[in-house]
Amino acid sequence: MKTLKLIFILPLVFFSCEQGGADSEESKAVASDSTRWIDSDLPIKLKIASDYAAGEEFTAISDSAAEWTTAVESKLQFFTMAGSTPNKEYANLADYNDGEMGVYKLNVWSDELPGTALAVTQLFGFQNAAGGVVISHADILMNEETYTFSTDADDSFNYDFETVMLHELGHFIGLSHSSFSESSVMIPSISLTDSNRVSTSIDRANIAYNYELETSYSNALTSANSTVAIHSSIESEEEDPTGINQGHMEKNEIGQVRILIHLMASGECIHEVNGKVVGSHKVDLHSKRTINSK
Question: What element of type H or E holds 292?
């Protein structure tokens, strides 16, 4: 069985001064130490790549976006579908910070990303005075060069598109990973047979906490729950023996950052030559032995 492990990598990106910093009006609007959008930037106008807009993928994206609004009992609307946009496959990932938030199908995977990444959510933002990250831009990139996805929940031979999308949109609005022991769509790994299309009580508690909302799940968050803020999980990575959150965060002098969240196919050994996949085999992650090959 292929298992997907999610790994955080947060490199530095520089923004123009006009986009705000630690002392900007936008950063002051959010006093918490969460990773989140400010309320006035919601709902996010989400564009769908033309390669997805005409198919069942559009419905899967729309349903996943609506699920996060349901998760907060409609106290906030996180997304609105803003139609289609020509598919973008920038050579430089920083170029996606173009003012248009979208979900894109990459038929040629970026050289900046690991070849074993299934999908990537890229966030741009800046830190506020409380140490939180205020998100100002985000996109989701799907690795269609290496992997195949299905909108059929019963298809166990391809990754469930809606399961991946619900998880990635959770990162889009600032959620980190839950622990392996929790029932959550934000756990760090999924398998080919998983179909998780509805947020759980833990997800709903986490997102309510992240946006300081009073919902039926607001008081369900306990110290046993996972970290909520993406930047917090990265900053505490050295103290995380579980390996759930890996990576580091860098920032410039006014606190602006870029966050790349990789969904890695760590249960599959991918063989590459000169950046191209030439073969793969399944690996038992516990014994390190090959259990199937091709």
Answer: strand 290-293
Q: Which tens digit of pLDDT belongs to each residue from 4-34? A: 444 333 333 322 223 344 344 454 456 577 8
How wide is the angle at C-alpha 167 spanned by C-alphas 116 and 89, nearest 5°?
Answer: 50
**pTM recorded for the entire structure:** 0.77
Q: Domains, the chain, ranges and CATH? A: 5-293 (3.40.390.10)
- In the numeric block, which tokens belong to residue 283? 């690996």
Return the amino acid letter for 13.
V
Q: Please enumerate in sequence order all residues whose Cβ is within 8 A of that of 238, keeping only pairs 6 or more positions apart, or say none.
A: none
Please name which of 116, 155, 129 lies closest in space to residue 270, comparing C-alpha atoms. Answer: 116
Nearest to 65 by CA among 48, 75, 53, 80: 80
Angle at 114 between CA 113 and CA 117, to 5 degrees: 100
Give the Cα separation of 45 and 80 in Å (integer).
5
How far apart CA 31 and CA 51 sit, in angstroms, is 39
3-state helix, strand, coil in the chain (%, to 5): 25, 30, 50
Q: How many residues does the chain have?
A: 294
CB atoms within 10 A of CB 115: 17
CA neighbours within 13 Å on the CB side: how many for 209?
21
Query: Rounded distance, CA 86 to CA 80, Å?
Result: 18
pLDDT tens-digit map of 143-152? 999 899 999 9
Return d(Cα 33, Cα 116) in angstroms, integer. 32
CA angle 177, 182, 185 (to 5 degrees): 55
Contact (CB, 8 A) for 42 and 26: no
- Is the N-terminal amide bond of 43 cis, ω within 30° of 0? yes
DSSP bridge partners of 283? 290
